[in-house]
Amino acid sequence: MYESFYGMSATPFTRATPVSELLGTHASEEILSRLGYAAEQQLFAVVTGECGTGKTTLIRKFTENLDHSRFKPLYLADSKLTPRHFYKGLLEQMGCESKFYRGDAKRLLHQQVELMKGMHQLSPVVIVDEAHLLDREMLEELRFLLNFRMDAESPMALVLVGQSELQDRLRLQTFAAIRQRIDLQCRMPHFDRSETGGYMERQIEYSGAGRDLFTAAAVDEIHNWSGGAARLINKAATHCLIFGSGQGHRVIDDHMVRQVIDGELN
Ligand SMILES: Nc1ncnc2c1ncn2[C@@H]1O[C@H](COP(=O)(O)OP(=O)(O)OP(=O)(O)O)[C@@H](O)[C@H]1O
Ligand SMILES: [Mg+2]
What we know:
- The protein is α/β, with parallel strands linked by helices.
- The protein contains eleven helices and five strands, in the order H-E-H-E-H-H-E-H-E-H-H-E-H-H-H-H.
- Helix 5 links the parallel strand 3 and strand 4.
- The model has no long low-confidence stretch (mean pLDDT about 90).
């Protein structure tokens, strides 16, 4: 709706931003390289961070950039994941129909993983997003995957991704067996001021507007309000663009940002 006013050919600040246009911050590049190592070595990694900081986006980038001739990403994001759905989801992504009974499904998964590795030289990389919402039963079940690793060579990489509560839960004594098996732990931080600026610039550039639309003081306001969380930056920026185009302002300054935040976002 504001795109034509600002001369944009693509809508910025949305979830649909192509992976190639994502801002690679120092922290996100570091996590990507660790996850690459986890895939290579078939390790167990945990990625945590506050909501809206870009974890799922980072995983999207990670899976798209994986060498698909060597790795098979298997991604699950289900807030009510049960062991049954877990095996079903993994098996389906491996092109296989699941079994009704959990024990049968487990065995089948084991076989399929062996087959994938043996015949196709493909290593599975299992990613469970929204892992902070997993219940105890499901977390316990993950141990099964980790127990696979009794063999000398571990058959798959496992990446759990979730909000910070995941880390707190894994600290509980009942999950010690899982915690002890974590090989790599990564934390997704908020953007700092310069990253928020870089992020917004990149989004505007991607939109094709061809010039800066936010003044530096406007970026300061958005950064302060959002705390550097990508989702909130997107929200504030989008509201500002709608407001700005409605008012006929070509450039968005801090005064306008404050008006939008006070009027629409707080
Ligand atoms: N590096 C980035 N470049 C561009 N956009 C990003 C980047 N990181 C995150 N975003 C955008 O920010 C929004 C929130 O990101 P995302 O959904 O990945 O967060 P999250 O940490 O998974 O949140 P939650 O904890 O709620 O699952 C998305 O709309 C996404 O497109
Ligand atoms: Mg997410």
